[in-house]
Design goal:
elongated, about 10% strand, about 475 residues, 11 helices
Length: about 475
């Protein structure tokens, strides 16, 4: 029986391995905000005219049908420094996950040593010193830790969830870089557009100034009228440098997003854009369920919640014994005899170690549970923020569309009024100040329309960014 004991013990311990895993089995909590029906339905501010319930386009920027923009986004996704860092962080997380998974397998160790030494005679129960000898040792040791309480499995779960969170962080970086690239390009277009509108108005004011001077020279107007016309022309021209500065700022930001220095040349077509690209269709927004399954920040928070749940199991498993099965064989003896039968050695059997739980060990379990509660609160907050961002972006987009329509109507009326006042003034049927005021109103309306068109373009980018589209690889569904 004594000879069978080690083998029987080995079989019994192996049978126990994998029987249980302490700590909670992860699932998305029923009370999570994401599980609410109100979080999964259609959006309150989706009007069905400017937006649709169709799924969000994975490559939403292509809805603008602008080949220059498509090229810029592709370049940014290849060269952006934030994306490169996020990709490196993902590779690191995957490597750590592989390292943790390897802990569950057997480990082998080879050793070899040689030394000139004297062994203590007392260690051999001798009262005389032993001679100095050349000693040698070589062998192999194999060990396998039995995961009786799921510590390794929970650790593997935590590492996998962490790598999936890193993948979601990489996806979040991708959609952010994409949105900022589109935003910078649109800002260049808006700045050029505003500059051209103001330049046209400035040219008109210069003509008006020249006419005023001619009429003053003919005695029909006074020097005061010339000063007013000069002030109006200078006021309009003063806005031109501001648009140039806006264009330069957007240009340099775009260069950074593309991984370039400000001195490096951007595509000429990108710098020449003078009109914001227009969407040819209603913006597809989907619904809340699709949004929360798609947004990388939601996925990242959910995976962090899963990781914190697994860490409860890791901390709980520390309360129980650790059992390792090991076997070793080799040769130990005088260096010149190593390898002979007389120096052979071997051994096998389990090693059981247990640190008796104290208040510190139980406190670590409590801390892990607290971390899990905090991760759930953070996850709920991310979900709520995602819904808020979409509803806010939808509301602003709809209201700015209404505002733009009204401003265009006002601009058209101001244009007609200015033309009529100019004809009446030239015919001597209206005072000069009426014509000047009409021109001033027209300039103000033209600039308001250009500003509103620019804002609407930014609203579109904000909405697409809030919807979380623009990435395709490495998708990790929340709750899985």
């Amino acid at each position: 029986m004594s000879r069978l004991y080690p083998a029987s013990l080995l079989l019994a311990l192996t049978a126990l391995a994998g029987c249980t895993s302490v700590g909670p089995d992860y699932h998305l909590p029923a009370g999570a905000v994401m599980q609410r029906q109100a979080a999964q339905g259609r959006f309150a501010n989706a009007d069905g005219r400017q937006t649709s319930s169709q799924p969000v386009a994975p490559r939403w920027w292509q809805l603008y049908h602008d080949p220059v923009l498509n090229q810029l986004v592709e370049q940014a996704q290849q060269a952006n420094t934030d994306l490169r860092a996020a990709t490196a962080n993902l590779q690191k997380a995957l490597a750590v996950a592989s390292q943790v998974s390897a802990e569950a397998g057997p480990h082998a160790e080879l050793s070899a040593s040689a030394e000139r030494a004297r062994i203590s005679g007392q260690s051999m129960l001798l009262d005389v010193p032993l001679p100095v000898s050349n000693l040698g040792d070589e062998g192999i040791r194999v060990a396998y830790q039995l995961d009786l309480f799921g510590k390794l499995r929970r650790g593997d779960e935590a590492a996998e969830a962490n790598s999936e969170a890193s993948a979601a962080a990489r996806d979040l970086a991708r959609i952010t870089v994409t949105a900022e690239t589109v935003r910078s390009y649109l800002q260049i277009c808006s700045a050029n557009h505003g500059y051209q509108v103001l330049q046209q108005q400035s040219a008109l004011q210069q003509k008006q100034l020249e006419l005023t001077r001619l009429l003053a020279g003919a005695g029909r107007l006074t020097a005061t009228d010339v000063l007013r016309a000069q002030a109006q022309a200078d006021s309009v021209a003063a806005g031109l440098p501001a648009y140039q500065a806006q264009r330069d700022a957007a240009r340099y930001r775009l260069a950074m997003l593309l991984g370039q220095t400000p001195a490096e040349a951007l595509p000429p077509a990108a710098l020449a854009c003078a009109q914001e690209p227009q969407l040819a269709q209603a913006i597809p927004v989907g619904d809340g369920r699709a949004l929360l399954a798609r947004r990388p920040d939601v996925q990242q928070a959910e995976r962090k919640l899963a990781q914190s749940s697994a860490m409860i199991g890791v901390a709980t498993a520390e309360l129980y014994p650790s059992i390792t099965l090991g076997a070793s064989a080799g040769f130990t003896g005088l260096l010149e005899d190593v390898g002979q039968r007389s120096t052979q050695r071997f051994g096998y059997g389990p090693l059981i170690s247990w640190t008796i739980p104290d208040s510190g060990a139980r406190a670590r379990v409590t801390a892990a549970k607290a971390d899990n509660a905090a991760a759930l609160a953070h996850f709920d907050g991310v979900v709520l923020n995602a819904l808020r961002e979409v509803e806010t972006s939808l509301s602003l987009y709809g209201k700015d569309l209404q505002r733009l329509a009204l401003l265009r109507t006002a601009r058209d009326s101001a244009r007609q009024a200015a033309a009529q006042n100019r004809r009446l003034y030239q015919a001597g049927r209206s005072p000069y100040l009426s014509s000047l005021d009409a021109d001033r109103t027209l300039v103000s309306n033209e600039m308001a329309v250009a500003s509103a068109e620019s804002q609407l373009a930014q609203d579109q980018v904000n909405l697409f960014l809030a919807l979380g589209g623009g990435w395709e690889e490495g998708k990790t569904q929340a709750g899985h």
